[in-house]
Amino acid sequence: MATYCAVTDLQKYYSPIDNYDLKVDLPDFEFKDLGSDVWQLDDAGAVVVAYRSGLDLGAMAANVGAIASENDWFYDSALDRFTIKLGTGESPEDDDIRLQRSPLDWADAKTYACQVATNQVNELLDSRFPVPLPVAENNETGDSYDQSVVEMTALLACVHLIKSSGSEDWLELQNRVFNADETGILDRLNAGKLKLSFEITKSDDGTIKVVSINDATTGGLVDAVGEPTVAFEIYLITIGTGGTLATGTENTTITYSVTDSQGSVGISTEYITGRFQPIGGGMSARFLPGIYTANDTWSMTVKTEGPQTSVIGTIRTSRR
């Protein structure tokens, strides 16, 4: 599934994020001298990337025996042992040498954090929001998703990375997303005080939810509108033939069908237009531009709310 923010967004919303790049200092005084300027550290901790004075030392050697040149290194995960060759006469305890490790490549760590944050957003959003969120139409920022979605996802990704680095500097960022005063981006979205681009209308008469969609799907079904003509019904909306719905281009490929809770077919095959289209029970919805895959399925619950009544009566009183 696509992420709501890109790796490049992390620094946009929290510029110091690269200060939390998961580097861990290796204890220089615990290295053993193996001779020939080769040094070994037991209980090193996972070493995926090795650094010398901030410089990435590149890919590790194939094995300990392949260590031949200065800055060659190897990490034996089974023994939790790190081995490195330094320059002639150099020692890990030299003032100008600082050896560090990272359990994950920093670029990979940021990519993973964006995915973690996207999953968090999906879990924390109110159930009225479709998951995944639809892409934003004609977004002036050029981002695939609304600015508020990109920002809160990037902030949560930074929170994940800062926590992973062992720092306590994450709370301020998390508060920008949600907090006890409910003034964060997520708080305002869930309260309806902040609207996403696809939220043209809000209706309690038709509730749309994702049943099952392909990981490649980026489109979505949104905006239930109309006047319910049934007391209660759940409609299943399923993509027949998949494809890409693009703004300004007529679709002659992607189709959808609708069945009700009893399996009866309401709409057998209909092309998606991107405009409001009938679903059932007097309600319509629209498909957003994006990629659709065969058998993507949404549900729409349609109900007629009973009149709200209150019993107001009068009593006669007398004063004696």
Topology:
Blueprint (H helix, E strand, L loop, with lengths): L6 H7 L10 E2 L6 E4 L2 E5 L6 E4 L2 E2 L16 E4 L4 E5 L13 E4 L3 H19 L22 H18 L6 H7 L7 H6 L15 E7 L8 E6 L5 E8 L3 E3 L9 E5 L5 E7 L4 E5 L2 E5 L2 E3 L4 E7 L17
Antiparallel strand pairs: 1-8, 2-3, 3-7, 4-5, 4-8, 6-7, 9-18, 10-16, 11-13, 11-18, 12-17, 13-14, 15-16
Helix pairs in contact: 1-3, 2-3, 3-4
Sum this structure up briefly.
By secondary structure, the chain is an alpha+beta fold. Helices cover 18% and strands 27% of the residues.
Computed Rg: 29 Å
The figure for the number of domains is 3
Mean pLDDT: 88
Could you list the spans in which at least 5 consecutive residues all have pLDDT below 50? 306-320
Q: Would you report the number of β strands?
A: 18
Question: What is the terminal separation in angstroms?
Answer: 77 Å
Profile the largest sheet. Answer: 5 strands, antiparallel
Strand order of the largest sheet: 9-18-11-13-14
> Percent of residues in beta strands?
25-35%
Please identify the structural class as seen in this structure. Answer: alpha+beta
Number of helices: 5
Shape, per Cα inertia axes = elongated
Helix content: 10-25%
N-to-C SSE series?
Answer: HEEEEEEEEHHHHEEEEEEEEEE
